[in-house]
């Protein structure tokens, strides 16, 4: 993905911490019914919301741009383990970014994601972490990135264990469904952030 605004960081956490994180994410606190695009999607998947607003920043034309407020303190209270992970991400990769949302998605066979953008705001970013201990190419579940006009695939991120992918929220993308041979829930942890706009001189 060299030259693209999509950044990939492998083995972001030591295995011990990744395993601790996966154990936490696998606790039975999931809710059913989330969709990539609530206005048009039929199929739903599992979801856990940890901190930040549930208000969408994929706005309709003419609406005022949604600007999230910092939810790091909320995350610290609600999910200290995830807050510690966020501290690592923000210190090493996203210095100066404001955390506006943290959540996890879970896909099982038959609950595919659809193409969507996370934001219409140019200063918004999404970071996706794959916490699994192992993953097989036969299981599917890749994150697919598309050209703005959806005419072609821009990039693909394999859900490699311990991989963190960061990208602008305005890039169309989707979570490919897992195959019938996949024996686990495809879990991804997301940090939605906003980067301050550069000061105009």
Structural class: alpha+beta
For the largest beta sheet, what order do the strands appear in spatially?
Answer: 1-8-5-10-4-3-2
The description of the largest β-sheet is: 7 strands, antiparallel
Q: How many strands appear in the DSSP assignment? A: 10
**Rg measurement, Å:** 16 Å
* End-to-end CA span: 32 Å
Q: Total number of helical segments?
A: 3
The fraction of residues in strands falls at: 25-35%
Quaternary organisation of the protein chains: single chain
Mean pLDDT: 88
- The residue fraction in helices comes out at 10-25%
Unreliable spans are 58-66
Task: Summarize, please.
The chain has 201 residues and is of the alpha+beta class. Helix content is 15%, strand content 28%. It has helices at 15-25, 72-78, 80-92, and strands at residues 7-9, 31-34, 45-52, 98-107, 124-129, 143-146, 153-157, 164-168, 173-175, 186-194.
Written description of the protein model:
By secondary structure, this protein is α+β, with helices and mostly antiparallel strands. Helix content is 15%, strand content 28%. The strands form two sheets. The chain has a seven-stranded antiparallel beta sheet. A three-stranded antiparallel beta sheet has the order 7-6-9, with no helix packed on it. A hairpin with a 6-residue loop joins strand 6 (143-146) and strand 7. Helix 2 runs antiparallel to helix 3.
